[in-house]
Amino acid sequence: MKPLYKIILILFLVVLLGFLGYFLWNKFFAPSPATTQQTNTTGAAVDLGNSNTPQEGGATTTTSTLGTIVLKKLSDAPVFTFWVSKSSGNVFYLTTDGAAMQATENQDTEVSKQHVSGIISTEPSPSGDKALVSFGDPNAPQWAIFDSMDKVWRPLSSDFISVSWAGTEDKLIGIIQKNGTPILASINLLKTPYEATVLVNNFTMKNVSFFAKSPSEILISEKPSALYNSRVWQLDTKTGILTLMLDPSFGTFLRWSNNRDIAFKFTSPNKFSILNRSFSDISPLVFPTFPGKCDGGADVVFCFVPQDTSIFSGSYSLPDDYFMNKFYTVDSLHRIDLRSGSDSPILISNTGSVPAIDATSVVENNSSIYFINKYDNYLYVVQQPQQEAPVDY
Amino acid sequence: MNHLSIKTFISGLVLVFLVFPSLVFGVTLTRAPQIPPQALLTWSASNFYPSTYRGRALPTPGTPVTVSVALLQNGKFTDLSNTSVVWYKNEEKFDGGTGLTQITFQPSSGEVGNNFIRAELSVGTSTIDQSILVPVTNPSVAIEIPYPNSLVDASSDITLRATPFFFNITSLQDLLFYWQVGDIKKDMGSDNSISVKIGSPFSGDQRKVSISSYVQDKQNMTTIIKTDSSLYIK
Fold first, then answer.
1. Is B72 inside any structural domain?
2. pLDDT tens readout for residues B167-203
3. Which one of A347, A380, B66, B184 is most buried, by most CB atoms within 10 A?
4. Where does a domain end: B136, B156, B184?
């Protein structure tokens, strides 16, 4: 056979396989908006009979099935928010009066003389080296970025209404005011003035926040309340298509893990679950807690779980009452292996020398678990025993 | 096999494996199900709550509530500037106009509960209808007791705070705070916190301390929210 005919024959087979592959993928594997169903099982905290040993410097060690756990109060002052640089491991925080500090083993360092008052929210950049901060009137917030590397505040344009990181260090996504009209835009911060690429003209959705699962997948979430059926959509910035990802449910809200691999979801009255990036439920077991008490990755998750689960029995309107601080919880820290389904309590607060912990804003970074304790608003860290690297023979 | 046979064979392959599937694929694409047009309603309430509050601000009587509509066609946002929109509130016509993509209303005290808001869009020859329930509630006050299990030490000094939510005010200065801790009543003016000296109880009955806060809107003196809580002396 001539070589040309052989080439043509090979091309036919490649094209045929391509068509077959496309149809099979569409039929079986194409992602689709997922709705989740959870069953609620109350998990009991296990008392390991730990011996808790107070140490110098305000640290407490406790023994668990994983080895020695160390709990330390990290900040020198009450904290409004914090973020962790993924590359350096440095921890920065904003105090309740708006000072920017770096947490150190000794006295914490004030990294900027400028204070910001009336902080509303912060969001660390994907690397953790910057923080996007909103402050002022919650109905008309101002925006700024704190750069932990340069230790400077960079105010953002007053055009910005509601913005979020767009999956990179130099881009934001959100609503900006353009000639008196709100538009949904992708914002390039490398340009001065900023460069906005319009995604949706005259964007009218109210009371929504944004989260970049990836630079092309933006989640648009309604703010939650136990009295309102909130929804979550995903906007594909390449095609402009908006897809409903979570059906309307009372009190629904999501919090994505620090590495954006998984999401923690709460729905009124007491349903907690862990979702993967496709919004499928991957919870090996279900215990009631709140998304702000958890962080981790696709394999292992750490969650602070209220010891008294009666708060989920209907006496409170959730999540509203928790956000309003109408009650405080006393938590135990659990380590959950998403592959095996095992759940190991590794720290029980309010026992021995371990203070009571109502954990929020939990962040896991390199086996250290950072959180703010709502009882005193200080930043704490739980350090686990270092995992031994496997030895190659 | 001669060249002519091979040519014929390959031509047959081209027909069967390339042209035919392409035709099928093309037909499939043209007959792919279209996403029907869909209207989306969302809303926001403009009243007073702490800047740190992570939940949704709920409207109370007198709160300006803005409801907006967006239209998706084939899943994409569509310009509504030339679209006729008619709004209904609890099935009574509220407003209408070309490009009227949002309305603002203030619920009355008789409208506490769910308010049914509906938008009717004229798109081409079709009418697209969408509705949403907007919950209206009363202002709320949280008495913050940041002590584990609300247990406090005997002979200690503690500070309690009453945090108001969803009043139609612009600052805490627009409110008056009254407290009753056990048998003691105190008028704190616009200060929403109170310092309490905890004594030493003589009996078990004295270990529970009842706390009530009363928060009154200066601009609407009939709005008084009473909140009860308790703390326990170790």
1. yes
2. 999 999 999 999 999 888 998 888 999 998 888 877 7
3. A347
4. B136
- In the block, which residue shows the tokens 């860290």? A381
Q: Which residue of A has its CA nearest to B75?
A: A241
Segments forming the whole domain that contains residue B194 = 140-233
* Smallest CA–CA distance from A201 into chain B, residue: B79
What are the φ and ψ backbone dihedral angles of B8, each rounded to 5 degrees? -65, -45
Q: Do β-strands B151-152 and B220-233 pair in parallel, antiparallel, or remain unpaired?
A: parallel
Q: Please compute the mean of the pLDDT values over residues B204-229 and round it to a whole number.
A: 91
Task: Say yes or no for a CB contact (<8 Å) between B42 and A206.
Answer: yes
Residues A333 and A382: their CA atoms lie apart, in Å, by: 9
Q: Which of B90, B117, B136 is the last residue of a domain?
A: B136
Q: Where are the alpha helices (DSSP H) in chain A?
A: 3-28, 320-323
Q: List pLDDT tens digits, range A310-342.
A: 999 989 999 999 999 999 999 999 999 999 989
pLDDT at A34: 29
Residues B132 and B167 in one domain: no
Q: Based on the structure, what is the number of domains in chain B?
A: 2
In this structure, the answer to whether residues B118 and B182 fall within a common structural domain is no
- Identify the three-state secondary structure at position B24: helix
Is residue B128 over pLDDT 70? Answer: yes
CA-closest candidate to residue A68, choices A367, A391, A357:
A367
Distance from CA of B232 to the nearest CA of A (A): 14
Together in a domain, B89 and B61: yes
> Residue B75's pLDDT band (boundaries 50, 70, 90)?
very high
